[in-house]
């Protein structure tokens, strides 16, 4: 096991939100927008000086280190406030321990390899690609230690989606849904690690593993009827099949498309059956479940989350990354009647995670060609995206009426509690 990442997320939030401040959140944040812009300009200038000095000394100066740490924390505080990951109005100085969502950072600067300092702006690009699909580098996105600024390519899609959907949910309920809060917190944590790496706060590369980011700071959600199982430690990848992965997957892409057409027709019939009986037809449930499981197998192969060539039947227990689905259960008729409308928020989150999955697959492709294995963090991020996609399809196709859970953490069985 590797040591914990020196940049750690802290979450001390109770999900309650004040509807009035939520409604006017962007307006209330205007002073912070101005301050954050000014601070970003200052960090760009001082970051360049810090970069030059550190190349020669191999270690950032303490004053620069404290300044960069304050900026990383303030960025996280402001992003957490804007995205409704927490509720209190943040301070302006990024003080440690002053906010419910905080970032723990090394207190003192550490020695770093000079060549990694010199090429930090280049080494930072893969992490930026992932961060742009999760949380982005808000407020201008520092793109280089040489003081230039550039926009992030993805704009923090997942965090933006969680904030948008959370805004409506919070106005209705006065609480931020746990799944959206946890997904937003994960995006913030990875962004903080990315910014800290760029600004020489640490030389540890950002870790995209959602479990390591969140397991110590928030509870797991309840066990979901749709679960991803498999051996997470099998990271070996065949270089030749990785290189030709898209070509090898073509037969599966054709077959999964044809199967999807039939599955949609079966789901329409299942919709009528469930409206009348309140319980899905077992034969249709079994057929659609096989399609959803097969879709997971294909995506796991295509996006390098698993290595073996999958079968074409979607049978359970035949692939290293597999899907467990409960049998047909009684479902709420009104939820069944409005299933497609109710699924729209989940489809939006699924699309956002699809961007992260694509970025992780692209980086894994290069990594696996060199190392013959998949990086642990990116593999687990991809598994999270595939799990949510499977839960979304299972909900949409009436396999279950349990709503997809956006938390990056796998649910735990609470039946014995």
Q: What does it look like?
A:
This protein has 417 residues and is mainly alpha-helical. A two-stranded antiparallel sheet has the order 1-2. The longest helix is centred in the C-terminal third of the chain and has 33 residues.
What spatial order of strands do you see in the largest sheet?
A: 1-2
By oligomeric state, this entry counts as single chain
Instruction: State which percent range the strand residues make up.
Output: under 5%
DSSP strand tally: 4
Determine the fraction of residues in helical runs and give it as a percent range: 55-70%
The major β-sheet equals: 2 strands, antiparallel
| Class per helix and strand makeup | mainly alpha
Rounded Rg: 22 Å
Topology as H/E string?
Answer: EHHHHEHHHHHHEHHHHEHHH
Q: How confident is the prediction overall: mean pLDDT?
A: 92
Per the principal axes of the C-alpha atoms, what is the gross shape? globular
**Kindly, what is the distance between the CA atoms of the first and last residues, rounded to a whole number of angstroms?**
30 Å
Low-confidence stretches: 139-155
What's the total helix number? 17
Brief summary:
With 417 residues, the chain is mainly α. The protein has helices spanning 19-23, 25-28, 30-57, 62-82, 114-118, 120-123, 125-134, 157-173, 178-198, 210-214, 239-243, 245-248, 250-277, 282-302, 333-337, 339-371, 376-396; strands at residues 8-11, 101-104, 226-230, 321-325.
Chart the SSEs and their pairings:
Layout: E1 8-11, H1 19-23, H2 25-28, H3 30-57, H4 62-82, E2 101-104, H5 114-118, H6 120-123, H7 125-134, H8 157-173, H9 178-198, H10 210-214, E3 226-230, H11 239-243, H12 245-248, H13 250-277, H14 282-302, E4 321-325, H15 333-337, H16 339-371, H17 376-396
Antiparallel strand pairs: 1-2, 3-4
């Amino acid at each position: 096991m590797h040591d914990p990442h020196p940049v750690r997320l802290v979450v001390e939030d109770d999900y309650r939100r004040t509807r009035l401040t939520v409604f006017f959140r962007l307006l209330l944040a205007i002073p912070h927008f101005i301050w954050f812009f000014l601070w970003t300009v200052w960090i760009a200038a001082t970051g360049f000086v810090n970069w030059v000095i550190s190349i020669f000394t191999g270690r950032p100066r303490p004053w620069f280190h404290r300044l960069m740490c304050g900026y990383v924390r303030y960025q996280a505080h402001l992003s957490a406030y804007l995205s409704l990951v927490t509720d209190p109005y943040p301070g302006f100085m990024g003080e440690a321990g002053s906010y419910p969502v905080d970032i723990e950072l090394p207190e003192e600067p550490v020695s770093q390899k000079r060549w990694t300092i010199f090429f930090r702006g280049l080494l930072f690009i893969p992490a930026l690609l992932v961060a742009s699909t999760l949380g982005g580098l808000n407020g201008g996105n520092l793109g280089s230690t040489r003081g230039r600024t550039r926009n992030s390519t993805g704009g923090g899609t997942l965090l933006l989606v969680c904030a948008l959907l959370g805004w409506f949910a919070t106005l209705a309920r006065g609480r931020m849904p746990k799944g959206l809060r946890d997904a937003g917190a994960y995006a913030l944590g990875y962004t903080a690690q990315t910014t800290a790496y760029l600004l020489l706060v640490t030389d540890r590369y950002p870790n995209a593993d959602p479990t390591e980011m969140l397991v110590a700071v928030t509870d797991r959600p309840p066990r979901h009827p749709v679960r991803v199982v498999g051996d997470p430690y099998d990271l070996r990848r065949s270089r030749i099949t990785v290189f030709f992965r898209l070509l090898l997957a073509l037969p599966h892409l054709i077959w999964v498309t044809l199967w999807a057409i039939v599955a949609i027709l079966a789901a329409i019939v299942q919709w009528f059956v469930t409206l009348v009986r309140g319980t899905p037809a077992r034969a249709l449930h079994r057929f659609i479940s096989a399609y959803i499981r097969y879709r997971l197998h294909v995506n796991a192969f295509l996006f390098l989350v698993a290595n073996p060539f999958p079968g074409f039947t979607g049978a359970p227990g035949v692939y290293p990354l597999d899907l467990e689905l409960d049998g047909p259960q009684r479902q709420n008729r009104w939820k069944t009647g409005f299933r497609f409308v109710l699924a729209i928020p989940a489809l939006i989150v699924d699309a956002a995670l699809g961007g992260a999955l694509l970025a992780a697959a692209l980086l894994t492709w290069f990594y696996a060609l060199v190392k013959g294995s998949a990086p642990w963090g990116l593999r687990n991020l991809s598994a999270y995206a595939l799990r949510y996609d499977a839960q979304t399809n299972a909900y949409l196709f009436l396999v279950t009426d349990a709503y997809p859970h956006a938390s990056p953490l796998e649910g735990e069985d609470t039946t014995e509690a």
